[in-house]
């Protein structure tokens, strides 16, 4: 097998009342209003043609096989002040 590194970086404009909270494992997630929490993680998407609509799989075995290939995952969050 060969090693594949994938880096995902998102920049988002979010409401002012979103907060970062630390989990019991030391990671961070976003706290949204109404006691909802949001985290970003890998979700494999599939298509029969790269020009068509991509979607997640309904087949749990396929999803688990792909996720088992992930050796590590890191998500970081940072609020940026403007002005």
List its traits.
83 residues; three-stranded antiparallel β-sheet; alpha+beta
Any overview of this molecule?
- The chain is α+β, with helices and mostly antiparallel strands and 83 residues long.
- Helices cover 11% and strands 14% of the residues.
- It contains 1 helix and 3 strands, in the order βββα.
- It has one helix at 60-68; strands at residues 19-22, 28-32, 36-38.
- It has a 3-stranded antiparallel β-sheet with strand order 1-2-3, with no helix packed on it.
- The longest helix is centred in the C-terminal third of the chain and has 9 residues, at 60-68.
- The chain starts with 18 loop residues before the first strand and ends in a 15-residue tail after the last helix.
**Count of extended strands:** 3
Give the strand order, joined by hyphens, for the main sheet: 1-2-3
Helical/strand content category? alpha+beta
Low-confidence parts, pLDDT < 50 over ≥5 residues?
Answer: none
Helix content: 10-25%
What's the number of helices? 1
Molecular shape: extended
* Percentage of residues in DSSP E strands: 5-15%
Biggest pleated-sheet summary:
3 strands, antiparallel
Cα-to-Cα separation, first versus last residue: 48 Å
> For the residues shown, what is the average pLDDT?
91
Can you write the helix and strand succession as a string?
Answer: EEEH
Q: What is the CA-atom radius of gyration, in angstroms?
A: 16 Å
């Amino acid at each position: 097998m060969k090693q594949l590194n994938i880096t995902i970086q998102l920049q988002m404009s979010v409401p002012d009342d979103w907060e970062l909270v630390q989990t019991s494992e030391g990671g961070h997630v976003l706290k949204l209003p109404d006691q909802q929490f949001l985290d970003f993680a890998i979700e494999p998407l599939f298509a029969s043609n790269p020009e068509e609509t991509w979607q997640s799989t309904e087949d749990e075995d396929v999803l688990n096989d792909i996720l088992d290939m992930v050796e590590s995952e890191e998500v970081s969050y940072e609020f940026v002040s403007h002005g």
